[in-house]
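Lecture 7 notes: from sequence to structure.
We start with the chain below.
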Amino acid sequence: MLNRAGDVWTADFQGLTLRTALQPIYSISHKRIVGYEALIRAFDTRDTQILPVDLFKLPSSDFENLLLDRLCRYLHIRNYSGIKDELNWLFLNVSPKVATSGNPSDSFFAQLLRKTGLPAHRIVMEIVEQPTDDAERLRETVAYYRELGCLTAIDDFGAGHSNFERIWNLSPDIVKLDRTLLTRATEDSKARQILDGIVSLLHQSGCLVLLEGVETRSQAMIAIDAGVDFVQGFYFRRPSTELSGLERTPANFGQLLDEYKRQNQVTFDPTQQVVNFFERFFLSTTDRLCSGASMADACENLLNQPTVSRCYLVDGNGLQIDETLVSHSARNLDPRFRPLEDSSSADWYRQQYLRKALAQPETLQVTAPYLCVTGAYMCVTLSLGFYHEGELRVLCCDILSTPIDPRVSKD
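Predicted structure tokens for the same chain:
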């Protein structure tokens, strides 16, 4: 069943020859390889490659599924042990169905590591995207690998059954994002923002993030901008059964990061341009408020700026004072969200821009673009804390970050 030619191992399974293919995984910040994903490649008697999906259809029972899974892992670890690399990770795929069909305390894998001498801390066990009805058994299996000293990863996050529910249940060390997230981000700016948000949430969950399926230079730049930790894909290196020399696979991260820096120098902090432009309007408005002018009169110049949607005043407890002043251009916003427009007496204390303005009076604060709850449009909010008759107040102003759609009727 197992064959060896020098340092390379192959295996026989139902008339097919199985070989290990490795694909490098790169750390963007380190600008080098930090691991390899092991993939199985099957060939028939004429040395024609068989699709992996067809290979994994061959087992007709749970026993044969388990046998094929163990055979693949044995082959991969044997081949990886022959590579002159004593540092980087080996990513091994394991199906949830296989993981939950066996005994979590089965010693096969531990014995395999002892036999090959490969340390457990260099193994990343990937739970590939497949449904399973036994979530508890899957959790026990992941805990078993973790107790051995392996890292764990969730594969294909964002597709099918790999979602935040699986993240919460399994607490993986690494999350691999499904390539469909990247292809959509390549075509749609909203999908790109969602990708950025997913990466941020996963980091907050304590997971490192790997983006797979990077096939073009523009996709590599999207990966860099999204803040992922690791990348994998044809743009850097295709999987290869030629295992010698893989550790010397070059990458052009120096050029990519230089390009990223050039692109982001001009817009490194675009919000600062907003602050610089509006600061004089805010100072003039707060001076007029302190001199006794009404909110409408004091905010007149602010509201006449074409990108301003609304102005409102908040007290030291975060409660809005009086009604919101809406600019003429903002009155054309989507009427479907009119139930959200009236924000008199609203409590804005949860908003970071409000708390920062209260904590740092006389300093104009600005947010990153976000979805405004009063109209479901993208905006940035400027806020300035100031004292009026001994009481701390905050003047807030929403700035549209995207133009208003002229097709939206105000009626």
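Points to note: The radius of gyration is 28 Å. The domain at 270-400 is CATH 3.30.450.20 (Beta-Lactamase).
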